[in-house]
Amino acid sequence: MDVARPYAAICPSLDGEVLSVLAGTSRPLTGREVARLTGRASHAGVLEVLNRLAEHGLVDRQEAGRALLFTLNREHLAAPAVDILAGMRTELFNRIREAISRWQVAPLHVSIFGSTARGKGDTRSDIDLFIVRAKGVSQDDSRWRAQLDALARRIERWTGNRAGISEVAEEDLTQLRDEHPPIVAELRSDAIVLSGSGIRLLIGTT
């Protein structure tokens, strides 16, 4: 999965970027606004895509003075597929949360960080997870290790990307705060908590 453009697995063209923008809002947008929100497309190219999608009925086009406004037609048969493609990143987070909720040995904390959390990267990017093992759970606990291995396999099946798991014991959090390795800065700026305690509660704010 392209972690910056998950929809590209099915719709790698400019159409995918345009539809992703429209799926993310119900507010009518001009072609220039859509182009700006895609982050890299030209106004002319975006307008061509919008007009073509409007011909298929997937996009509603309306006049507003001299401007044309565009919205996703959510009554269209294809609209649910667009929402699924645009929501793949959120779906990944939900699947991980669901998998963790079924663990026999509960973690103290799980968060996603790095390129996936930032919405950047590509198909070669790891899906980076920061997992804190609760006090009293051994690193070699067979149930714990089986959970981590199963989650890593599922993430690769769901996305095609390798899971990069950074695991730390609850007892080692103080050392992590004191030594301040690069991962700490990443976690403080990017981490999206999927389970357990907040990241700033665990590793501090500075």
Walk me through what this model shows.
The chain is of the alpha+beta class. The protein has two domains: 6-85, Winged helix-like DNA-binding domain superfamily/Winged helix DNA-binding domain (Arc Repressor Mutant, subunit A), CATH 1.10.10; 88-203, Beta Polymerase, domain 2 (2-Layer Sandwich), CATH 3.30.460. 47% of the residues lie in helices and 18% in strands. The protein has ten helices and seven strands. Strands 6-5-4-7 form a four-stranded mixed β-sheet, sandwiched between helices. A hairpin with a 2-residue loop joins strand 2 and strand 3. The two termini are 33 Å apart.
What's a quick, concise take on this entry?
This protein folds into two domains: 6-85, Arc Repressor Mutant, subunit A; 88-203, Beta Polymerase, domain 2, CATH 3.30.460. The chain has 206 residues and is of the alpha+beta class.
Question: Top keywords for this entry?
Answer:
single chain, four-stranded mixed β-sheet, alpha+beta, 18% strand, Arc Repressor Mutant, subunit A, 2 domains, 206 residues
